[in-house]
Amino acid sequence: MSTGTFVLAMFAFSVFWIFPCIGICVFLHELGHACTSIFLGCKVKKFRIGTGTKWARGFTLRVNGERVKVYFSPDFASGSVSPEKPASPSVAAAIILAGPVVNLLLAGIGASILWLTLEDPIVVRKICRSFGDGYACHPLIESNIRAALIIIVTGIFALVNAAVVMIALIPTEGSDGHLLLKIARGKFHELAVWK
Fold it and tell me: What percent of the chain has pLDDT over 90?
C-alpha cells in the first residue's frame, strides 16, 4: 500500500470513527449519572440518549426492581437522565459530577493507552520502519495498520471524552456545569431538573 493511500485510508477511518465515538462517550456519561443515582438511592425514571423524538426507540429495563425507560434517537450528541429528587444538595452534586468524572477517567485511560503505544520502541519502530534516517517519525504514515489504528482509535477516544467533560461543565442552561453552579449558589430547590 502506498503512503498516500494509507494516509487517506487512516483519515477516512478517523472521520467515520468520530461519530460512533461521540455516541459511546455520551452514553457512558449518562450511564455514570444513572448508576450514581441508583447507588445513592434515587430511582431513575428515564434514561435518554439524544434529544429528538423523531425515530426515538425505547425499551424498559428493570434495575433494583424498578422500571427505567431507555430511549435512543438519532441526534446522539446529547442525553439526559431523569432521577427522582435527591435528598440533599451533596447527593445532587455527586450525581451531576458522575458523568464528567466517567468521561475524565475514560479520557485518561485512552491517553494512557496512546502514550504507552507511542512510548513502546517496538511499536514506534514498526510504524516508522519505512522511513530512512532523514525522515521524522510520523506515527500515521506507515504500512503497519494495526499500530496506526490503535493510535487513531485511542487518540480520538481520549479527545472526545475530554471534549465531553469540557462541554458538560460549561455553565449553559441545563448542563452539568449550570446545575453545579446553582447548587454552589444555594439554589438547589430551584432546579427544574427535579421539580
Answer: 13
**8 A C-beta contact, residue 47 and residue 72:** no
Q: Are 123 and 147 in contact (CB under 8 A)?
A: yes
User: DSSP readout, 75-93?
Assistant: -TT-EEEEEPPPSSHHHHH
Cell 453545579 locates to 180
Residue 191: all three cell numbers together: 432546579
- Is the pLDDT at 166 greater than 90, yes or no? yes
Beta bridge partners of 4: none
| Max Cα distance, the chain (Å) | 66
Confidence class for position 108, pLDDT limits 50, 70, 90: very high
- The whole-angstrom separation of Cα 49 and Cα 57 is 10
pLDDT-derived band at 132 (thresholds 50, 70, 90) equals very low
